[in-house]
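Today's session is about reading a structure prediction critically. Students often jump straight to the picture, but the first step is always the sequence itself: look for stretches that repeat, for charged clusters, for runs of hydrophobic residues. Only then move on to the predicted structure, which in these notes is written as discrete structure tokens rather than atom positions. Here is the chain we will use throughout the hour.
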Amino acid sequence: MANLKRVSAAGPKPNTTVAFDVPRGACDAHVHVVGQPEEFPMSPERDYTPPAATADDLVEMLKFLSIERAVIVTPTIYGNDNSVTLAAIEKLGRDRARGVALVDKATSSERLDSMMKGGITGMRLFLGGAGVFRPAAAAKHLQTAIDLANVRGWHLDISAPPDVVAALAPQLAACPVPLVLDYFGWVAGGVQQPGFEAVLSLVKSGRAYVKLAEPYRLSKKAPDYGDLIPVVRALLAANPDRLLWGSGWPHVDSTPVAGRSNTDLAPNLPVDTGHLLNLFARWVPDAEIRRTILVENPARLYGF
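Below is the predicted structure for this chain, in token form.
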């Protein structure tokens, strides 16, 4: 960490004023907090090094957007150390914040129970996002996570492309804990993408939530991401009671760059969070459905 200098207020601030009435109790269901490196050291095995985006920065961002609640997801740069997320939950208060943890085989039951007391309500799971997909190994990994989550009343926050969701569909459909699929269900190829029907089936049945979060990870048409509109419409038609909205703030850039090491500072993506929230309102013009997605669904899932 010696090569990292302290960076204050690095969390990107929204530039665009919100153009609709944000309902009371609205929740940003996908944010990250990156602490100052001397206080919250990153894993030496991390893939990238983002600038600090502290809990104080998060509070200011939420205030600007008139959003009261947030779900803080531990970024992969910390490995299985969720200290930064737990500290941010404490900073915002349990009436405003919940957390999603990263765990591995080294995470003890005692640590899991302690995190639950600190406001963690779910654990994140990466399935088949890179490399060769091995169904048997993925199914075993999923079952281990289900067992850990089930005894604590947690949900599983799953990052997986739709073909992986389709391959694991019977196991997911029978899962006893709530499921959340990240990033529009990772449907980068539109409604015709193989596996999207499996995503829709889980949403229709109420078995899984989908986060309408970080469209810039999938879309080829920034800044309005029009190629995702058919996906949003299909998800809305399937079951608006199983949709969440998340900004992805502070919009870290984990993409490998030639000549940049994992310890070199990787600037955040130039994404305007206010614009993202306004886009959501354009995609979901019905105020009652917006309230369902921004308030009622996260309150039910995360226990606000």
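Discussion point for the tutorial: The chain has ten helices and eight strands.
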